[in-house]
Amino acid sequence: MTYEIMLVRVRPGSTLEETVERLGAGFDSEAEPAPLRLTAAQRAAWERIVSRVARDVGPVDTEEFRYGPTLETVGPPGRVQLDYCGDTATVEVAYCHAGPAARDLMERAYRIARIVEDESGLTGHDFEVDQPVRTGDPARAAARLSGVTDWVRQHVG
Question: What does the alpha-carbon distance between residue 83 and residue 89 come to, in Å, rounded to a whole number?
């Protein structure tokens, strides 16, 4: 289970909510996703994202999968994963961090999401705490991450 920040391309005349609804309506969890073929512009945006995250956030590993490229941060405070699909992206953090570690990790996740917004034109929203990435407070996200992690440790682990 992961904490997710969603990024989507909101087309003119549409709202973020309409865009997310449209994406959800077309999703079939049983269907095999078609292989992703990034456009030249999407590929260039991905390269800029990787370069900026490595420069501004820290070391990263990248890998290309059939369904899109993935970036993972390397080293402390923990792993943040970015899955990029051209018109959508997801920043994911595992629910296994609490307290100051959760704060540091969510600050990193928000920095990455903001870089994706800057370089790709996607719009990010953290539905876990219902706030836009651009103006959102990573401390709110960290409190949520920490709270869920603590709950899981007490009731599951």
Answer: 5
